[in-house]
């Protein structure tokens, strides 16, 4: 068998190396990579959920009154081994609704703990992406009932929620030699029953006694990052979310039976972002998530800023 090696064309663009590309990650999709053993990541987000109307059950948009949900979310991740990372994810918030009282102060939301195990690792020249399994448990640390006349003090769901997911990540070289990184996250979340007393985030009023069963949810999140230069990256998330019906059962203040459904919902969101990386370990992200379509869900735009630090 004969073989030959042909020289590259002189005008062919040079392929960017993986080491030359610096990233913070897109706004929403989690990385399929795990941290090397003994290393850590800290990534705080600050955001403002600006709700301006809602999509009804027929997918039509209504309403113009704007509310704000200011919040923070911080990923704190540690590499236990080269293939296993553990995370703690606390949240905090302050709500300023279009109607009614604002939050009485900054409140703690639900806290999540997560584990991620890497199954495969991408290698240039091979088709196999990096793939990881993820398990996340959200704990009901945020206030969710006994809200009185301050519904805006509701920062949590009251439910223990278990999320399982599969994350993937791969790289493509564009015709100009620059790298396009792609992520795909598929997750399913299931919550337990929540006991409710008085006014709550589930729409109950003072005097109510009962429970809610949050519907399971499925999320598909695809994301792309284009390395313009070593420092600058353009990113885009496309997210589909489907949530099953939440049923509330109990008795109102008069003792009468009260049962109602919040209904199933779905939404489609886009989240463009710009990343600037000071070096391979520190970067900042400025982005915005917008709900561009859906059913039985709020219509909102969420600007956000994040700092990514890896050591």
Question: Would you write up a description of this structure?
Answer:
It comes from Tahibacter soli. This is Transporter. The protein has one domain: Porin. Helix content is 0%, strand content 57%. It has strands spanning 40-55, 61-79, 84-89, 91-96, 107-108, 111-120, 130-139, 161-173, 179-191, 194-197, 209-213, 217-227, 232-243, 247-251, 257-261, 265-277, 282-295, 297-310. The strands form two sheets. The protein has a twelve-stranded antiparallel barrel with strand order 1-2-3-6-7-8-9-12-13-16-17-18. A four-stranded antiparallel β-sheet has the order 10-11-14-15, with no helix packed on it. β8 and β9 (179-191) form a beta hairpin. The chain is elongated, with a radius of gyration of 22 Å. The model is unreliable at 1-8 (pLDDT under 50).
């Amino acid at each position: 068998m004969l073989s030959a090696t042909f020289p590259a064309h002189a005008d062919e663009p040079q392929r960017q190396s993986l080491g030359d590309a610096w990233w913070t990650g897109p706004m929403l999709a989690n990385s399929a990579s795990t941290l090397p053993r003994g290393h850590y990541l800290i990534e705080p987000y600050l955001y403002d959920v600006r709700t301006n109307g809602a999509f009804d059950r027929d997918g039509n948009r209504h309403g113009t009154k704007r509310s704000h949900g200011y919040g923070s979310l911080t990923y704190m991740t540690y590499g236990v081994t080269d293939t296993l990372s553990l995370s703690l994810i606390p949240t905090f918030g302050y709500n300023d609704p279009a109607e009614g009282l604002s939050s009485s102060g900054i409140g703690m939301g639900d806290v999540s703990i997560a584990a991620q195990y890497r199954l495969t690792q991408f290698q240039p020249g091979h088709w196999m992406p990096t793939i990881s399994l993820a398990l996340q448990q959200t704990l009901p640390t945020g206030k969710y009932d006994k809200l009185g006349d301050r519904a805006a003090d509701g920062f949590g769901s009251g439910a223990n929620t278990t999320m399982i997911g599969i994350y993937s990540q791969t790289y493509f070289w564009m015709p100009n030699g620059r790298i396009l990184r792609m992520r795909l996250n598929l997750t399913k979340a299931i919550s337990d029953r929540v006991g409710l007393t008085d006014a709550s985030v589930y729409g109950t009023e003072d005097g109510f006694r009962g429970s809610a069963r949050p519907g399971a949810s499925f999320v598909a999140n695809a994301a792309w990052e284009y390395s313009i230069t070593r420092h600058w990256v353009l990113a885009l998330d496309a997210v589909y979310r489907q949530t099953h019906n939440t049923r509330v059962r109990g008795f109102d203040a008069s003792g009468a039976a009260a049962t109602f459904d919040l209904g199933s919902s779905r939404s489609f969101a886009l989240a463009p972002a710009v990343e600037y990386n000071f070096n391979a370990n520190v970067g900042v992200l400025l982005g915005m998530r917008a709900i561009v379509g859906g059913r039985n869900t709020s219509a909102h735009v969420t600007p956000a800023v994040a700092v990514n630090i890896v050591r």
